[in-house]
Amino acid sequence: MTQNLTREQLQEHIDRFPRMQIAHLPTPLEEMPRLTEKLGGPNIWIKREDMTGLAYGGNKARHYEFEMPHIADQGYDVMINIMDYHSNNARMTGAAANKIGMRYILVLKNAANRVVQGNLLVDKILGAELHLLDEFQSNDAEGYATNLKEQLEQQGHKPYLVQEHLFPRIVGMIGFVQAGIEMLEQIENNNLKNIHIIGVAGRSLCGLIIAAKSMGLNWKFTGVTVNYDVPLGDYIFQHSKDIQELLGLPITFEENDMQVLDQYVGEGYGVMTPQVAEAIHIAAQTDAIICDPNYTGTVMAALIDQVEEGTFDNDETIIFLHTGGLPAIFTFADQLANFKG
Ligand SMILES: Cc1ncc(COP(=O)(O)O)c(C=O)c1O
Predict the structure, then answer these.
(1) pLDDT at residue 231 in the model
(2) Domain enclosing residue 136, as ranges
(3) How many domains does the chain contain in total?
(4) Is 16 found in the same domain as 98?
(5) pLDDT tens per residue, range 296-325
(6) Which H, E and C letters describe 285-321, residue by residue?
(7) Going by CA atoms, what residue is nearest to atom 13 of ligand 1?
(8) Which residue in 6, 258, 329, 340 has the most C-beta neighbors within 10 A?
């Protein structure tokens, strides 16, 4: 049997890492009473990672508190990131790079001739050096970015191409191990029982799982797949050894640590299903919560459907992990504005 850590002991593990404080913390944990009433199932709460404050907020503010100093400490002086034109990651990486004073080059796929709004507009305002690829160029975005990287190296820079490195992303997960300690306190203060957290099947949820397992908490986790191309749910399973070595925690992971739901993806990343559009309207018209069309809207659709299917026990407290993504609603303005529920 492994020995559970106290929250102070877990905090000591976290405090060994360099950190820059760029997120507004703690984020609120609040009730969604009107959604709870509408669905007539278990009590639904929300953890507001959309309120981390960094350039419209989102989960990556926590990740970059740890990931960005890790990258800068290795002497990198310019970041290159390859993302889709409406990416939240693209925006938040730019914001975190500005905070630490790192030059930021953004290679955006399927971005040529797009209306400049949503995340793309914020990228521009943040001063990202934009390379807007057309559909043809997007087929080899990696080749395009590698070329840029080689040119920078020839000029004497040490460029960091995000997609070539996995370990720093694991370092970034520490931000959500920290969030686990924060949530434990909020859960206790509100006297919540039978915790069941639902969010995107990705790094943030994995960070919370690490925290819960380290402290011996019996929180349940449901991860919703949002993209068939990225096996987000595999983070802790494929990298559990890296996580253990990194954090020095006496924990192992089992398949049932996260129940993964992949039936809500629809046609894939960047294509909003009618079910997601409806969920976005329901969350907004009950508890005034704005979800995004790719990530949190999909999780909200899953939550609503699972409550309606009676999958959750009525004595559970469901916590919806809102990971941000707000500027993306403007990219889907036509579809959302014309939605008839
Ligand atoms: C709004 C939002 N939620 C969740 C995620 C998944 O992130 P992670 O795997 O880092 O938890 C992303 C990724 O970009 C995102 O933009």
Answers:
(1) 58
(2) 60-164
(3) 2
(4) no
(5) 999 999 999 999 999 999 999 999 999 999
(6) HHHCCCCCCCCHHHHHHHHHHHHHHCCCCCCCEEEEE
(7) 89
(8) 258
Interval 237-247 mean pLDDT: 78
61 lines ligand 1 (CB under 6 A): no
Strand partners, 48: 322
For 5-52, what is each residue's pLDDT tens digit? 999 999 999 999 999 999 999 999 999 999 999 999 999 999 999 999
Q: Which pLDDT value is given to residue 230?
A: 57
Domain membership of residue 2 (yes or no) is no
Dist. CA 142–CA 4, nearest whole Å: 43
Q: How far is CA 340 from CA 83, 178, 278, 281, 336, in A?
A: 31, 40, 8, 10, 9
- For residue 202, the CA-to-ligand 1 centroid distance in Å is 7
Do 172 and 157 lie in one domain? The reply is: no
Contact 296, 48 (CB under 8 A): no
> Does ligand 1 have an atom closer than 6 angstroms to the CB of 296?
yes
- CA separation for the pair 57, 11 (Å, rounded): 24
- The answer to whether the beta carbons of residues 95 and 20 sit under 8 Å apart is no
pLDDT per residue as tens digits for the range 262-281: 899 888 777 889 999 999 99
> Does the beta carbon of 84 sit less than 6 angstroms from any atom of ligand 1?
no
User: So what's the pLDDT on residue 2?
Assistant: 66
Other Cβ atoms within 10 Å of 72 Cβ, number = 18
Looking at 164, 187, 215, which one is the last position of a domain?
164
Which of 108, 169, 200, 239 is the best mutation target for the ligand 1 pocket, counting ligand atoms within 8 Å of the beta carbon and taking the most? 200
Asked if pLDDT for residue 327 goes beyond 90, the answer is yes
Look up the CATH number of the domain holding residue 141: 3.40.50.1100
SS3 108: strand
- The verdict on the CB of residue 119 being under 6 Å from ligand 1 is no
| Residue 233: band (very low, low, confident or very high) from pLDDT cuts 50, 70, 90 | low
Q: Write the pLDDT tens digit of every residue in 106-148.
A: 999 999 999 999 999 999 999 999 999 999 999 999 999 999 9
Atom of ligand 1 nearest to the CA of 202: 9
